Request: fold
Amino acid sequence: MFEGSGVAIVTPFKDGKIDFKKLGELLEWHVSEGTDAIIICGTTGESATMSDDERKEAIRFTVEKINKRIPVIAGTGSNNTKYSIELSQYAEKVGVDGLLIVTPYYNKTTQKGLIEHYTTIGDSVNTPIIIYNVPGRTGLNILPKTIGELSKHPNIRGVKEASGNIAQVAEIARLVPDDFYIYSGNDDMIVPLLSLGGHGVISVVANILPKDTHNIVKYFLDGDLESSRKLQLKMKPLIDALFIEVNPIPIKEAMNILGIEVGPCRLPLTSMVNENREKLIHEMSLYGMNIGR
Reply:
């Protein structure tokens, strides 16, 4: 587990394939910029459009490249419990430090089903699991009471909370033990979540502002609440622009605008419409970023 900023890293593509050279460059950059953990094959990493072999290779490559310098957490969630177990066991075998497991989507389940899903996966591995609650994507909300129950499992050690409901975060914090890690899944709610006892963020904006995202958390945990608050508010207009279209379309566009060259998103995700791209460029410029257009 980690405290601070974990980047939900994009997957760079070139000629229809994963660009491992670029991925390696990004990983080295994040280590040098103070990113506290790498989350590979998450939503921002477009794992939904990656083959089984591609996901496994991206996870293995990241573990080997990082080489224990900071934690590597692999997205191994699925709406198929059996498949999630198989992928989680593979990730464990190659040496990840944690597993990020999203709630079942499309077929969904009940709260009872969620407990059985996560417990079954937790019983099948020894690597710490972070539950990923993102009802806007999955159509299914994990209730605080359910997270409280799951927090009793020795391998279920945290939650990435992306419901956008700060009252829900407060109730989760009330119900889980002190050593259960709570991470913000929303870049615009890092400080509010930290104020309730959270431990950091699994971030999209960290793909372009790794040091500032790290500092929001560091300032807060070091007791400099005012610097943390000011940095959160300074970043908010840019964060809003990064979600003007579905993630990861804008963050990849922003990286390409900056000359980082991570390639396009895979269909069904497309390039940004020009009007939204101009809004994104505007906010990046206001933040002081070097725009190559």
Q: What stands out?
A: The chain has a mean pLDDT of 97.
